[in-house]
Amino acid sequence: xxxxxxxxxxxxxxxxxxxxxxxxxxxxxxxxxxxxxxxxxxxxxxxxxxxxxxxxxxxxxxxxxxxxxxxxxxxxxxxxxxxxxxxxxxxxxxxxxxxxxxxxxxxxxxxxxxxxxxxxxxxxxxxxxxxxxxxxxxxxxxxxxxxxxxxxxxxxxxxxxxxxxxxxxxxxxxxxxxxxxxxxxxxxxxxxxxxxxxxxxxxxxxxxxxxxxxxxxxxxxxxxxxxx
Length: 228
Hints:
Layout: E1 3-8, H1 12-24, E2 28-34, H2 37-47, E3 51-55, H3 63-73, E4 77-82, H4 87-96, E5 100-103, H5 107-121, H6 147-161, H7 179-182, H8 191-208
Parallel strand pairs: 1-2, 1-3, 3-4, 4-5
């Protein structure tokens, strides 16, 4: 089965060079060619590409963030086309998440190798953004066994490997949570604070409707099956 590729370029020269190189690549299907970032992101859910070959000038200075978004949100392998052999720009795209950055003059020589590398690494499995989240839970039956330390180290390691904004560390120990201390943070609010604010808002709404909110030590009524 052919592997799906979208080509996103600004100039006809780029389009002609890359299209001919893709025709020579085995088991590759060019499913769409676009000329803007907006059109590219609109077509990704429709065509579900495995690789996007993208011009470094597609979105101007925003092309770096576009590459990062394609990789982290859509889990698409991205190969960037450079107008010349600019090492600094290539490094910036690689840091943004691109699999490779190829000068336009080397497309016929290197593009096929980059495409095959993307497919071998498995970075090309397309998934809906609603399916991207992964939750790892660290749970200890008693305190002092290193649960918070392990969770913190894993989160820090992931944030170094993945885009930092895609990693969220949550400490659900509302009484003795140690993660802020491990990270040398002094948070102004925590989950307990948010829960208290929620309770306060519920109390206010109930008061406005002349309803009584149960006291902290008072059990809420529970419906009994078979009884009204």
